[in-house]
């Protein structure tokens, strides 16, 4: 079975400060890891993914994430937060040999960026 | 930019009634999914669909649920006899066949309220 944990329900950060949203995963096999963002009353928007190669992946809106195999983590980061980054962030994992290729999502972390 | 569209955006129904939620995936995508999100909770996988058949389903997707691709464009989720606990936001998603490592593209969701 595959699972994702986002240990923080909410992260508060001041505008201009760096932000980190944490994610750890558990899979049997090589993971494909994803971050999605959900704005109020909207669907899920893809931010970035890790498949293979460089452990640091860059995505939309200045976000990046670092894959750490030994710690089974895939934390989302941004060097300088914007108020407009305030949203719900979901980490997700998929395993290569999963027949249906379903994504398993974490519980989500609400990011609040204050001016 | 191509997108996944869902209708209706919001449906209110009485317990025991049948509901059909409709989705138009991105035109060249061949993998289709339904997820749901109960208010304030995590995004949960329901079912994946490929080559006109279910490839994977979760425990949530019991006999009350069914999916269909009645024509070349629509992908529907039917709940035969709705229960109060079916109240949730239902998200449709699609993925391109050639992108085994590819991300899912989500629609804006259909909010179902069962009274």
Key features?
heterodimer, A: mainly beta, 6-stranded mixed sheet, 4-stranded antiparallel sheet, 52% strand, B: 115 residues, mainly beta
Low-confidence stretches of chain A: none
What quaternary form is this? heterodimer
- How confident is the prediction overall: mean pLDDT of chain A? 91
Sum up the overall morphology of chain B in one term. Answer: globular
The global form of chain A is: globular
Q: Which structural class best describes the helix and strand composition of chain B?
A: mainly beta
SSE arrangement of chain B, N to C: EEEEEEEEEEE
| Annotation field: number of helices of chain A | 0
Question: Runs of chain B with pLDDT <50, length 5+?
Answer: none
Quantity of strands of chain B, as a count: 11
In helices, the fraction of residues of chain B equals under 10%
Structure description:
The complex is a heterodimer of chains A (115) and B (115). With 115 residues, chain A is an all-beta fold. Chain A contains no helices and twelve strands. In chain A, the strands form three sheets. In chain A, strands 2, 5, 6, 10, 11 and 12 form a six-stranded mixed sheet that branches. Chain A starts with a strand and ends with a strand. The model of chain A has no long low-confidence stretch (mean pLDDT 91). In chain B, strand 4 and strand 5 form a beta hairpin. In chain B, 0% of the residues lie in helices and 52% in strands. In chain B, the strands form two sheets. In chain B, strands 2, 4, 5, 6, 9, 10 and 11 form a seven-stranded mixed sheet that branches. Chains A and B meet through strand 5, strand 6 and strand 11 of A and strand 4, strand 5, strand 9 and strand 10 of B.
């Amino acid at each position: 079975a595959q699972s994702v944990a986002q240990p923080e329900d909410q992260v508060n950060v001041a505008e201009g400060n760096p932000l980190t949203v944490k994610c750890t995963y558990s899979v049997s096999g090589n993971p494909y890891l994803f971050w999605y963002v959900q704005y109020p009353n909207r669907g899920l928007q893809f931010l970035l993914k890790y498949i293979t190669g460089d452990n640091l992946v860059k995505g939309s809106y200045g976000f990046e994430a670092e894959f750490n195999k030994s710690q089974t983590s895939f934390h989302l980061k941004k060097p300088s937060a914007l108020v407009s980054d305030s949203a719900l962030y979901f980490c997700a994992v998929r395993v290569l040999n999963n027949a249906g290729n379903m994504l398993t999502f974490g519980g989500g972390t609400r990011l609040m960026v204050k001016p | 930019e191509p997108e996944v569209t869902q209708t209706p955006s919001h449906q209110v129904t009485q317990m025991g009634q049948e509901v059909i939620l409709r989705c138009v995936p991105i035109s060249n995508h061949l993998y289709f999914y339904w997820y749901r999100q109960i208010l304030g909770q995590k995004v949960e996988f329901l079912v994946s669909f490929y080559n006109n058949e279910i490839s994977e389903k979760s425990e949530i997707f019991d006999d009350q649920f069914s999916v269909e691709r009645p024509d070349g464009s629509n992908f529907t989720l039917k709940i035969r006899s709705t229960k109060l606990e079916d109240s949730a936001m239902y998200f449709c998603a699609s993925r391109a066949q050639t992108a085994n490592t590819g991300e899912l593209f989500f629609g804006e969701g259909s909010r179902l309220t069962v009274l």
